[in-house]
């Protein structure tokens, strides 16, 4: 084992990390996670997904505890669905962004902790609809902003990578009032500037009296960098972009080769 370090909190990204490209947890990885959990380490999922399509994976693994969802904007208790922490967006500040997204015809959704809204449900393009089906989500129609009774935590853009690269460049010239993040090849997220996986993970660890060096994190994309650098040990998947690998302490196998299993075996079970 890594000196005598015992990892007490293990943060796992979901897509591209815990799940293989078929959106499944392999039998091998499942078995290893259950074993690590039975030895007392707490597993927390840290994902760009909302709680409603990440909590089922906790249930599949037989775990209670927490999911850090919407890339750190919302932390939810798995069994009670209670929101223990959220970073809300300034609704007035969002308006010009949404108008711009409509002008340039990029698809976006607006998220509260548990719900997702789009301008039109009927008019969804085929690839947009299949993306939501893949993520087990069905959005509702976006009401006017003054009708929201709960905080908005994230706005997500969905389009081809090249188009998102251009939009990301353009938005980086605007007054920096949001955390704007490439959260996947086909996604860009707008969040509260305080919201990140690393920040949410740090808050959770502190609330449990767990020291930074007792935290292990695994991820594969740019939105995982904050948690990989916060954790005492940050491990990137082999399918990560180079910048993500550079931010990590080491690299494990890919998400299609049971990389999570390999890392947990090395640091938590050996």
UniProtKB/TrEMBL annotation:
Keywords: Hydrolase. GO terms for cellular component: cytosol. Coiled coil: none annotated. InterPro entries: Cof (IPR000150), HAD-like_sf (IPR036412), HAD-SF_hydro_IIB (IPR006379), HAD_sf (IPR023214). One of its GO terms (molecular function) is phosphatase activity. Pfam families: Hydrolase_3 (PF08282). NCBIfam families: Cof-subfamily, HAD-SF-IIB. PANTHER family: HAD SUPERFAMILY HYDROLASE-LIKE, TYPE 3 (PTHR10000:SF8), PHOSPHOSERINE PHOSPHATASE (PTHR10000). This is Hydrolase. It comes from Paenibacillus pini JCM 16418.
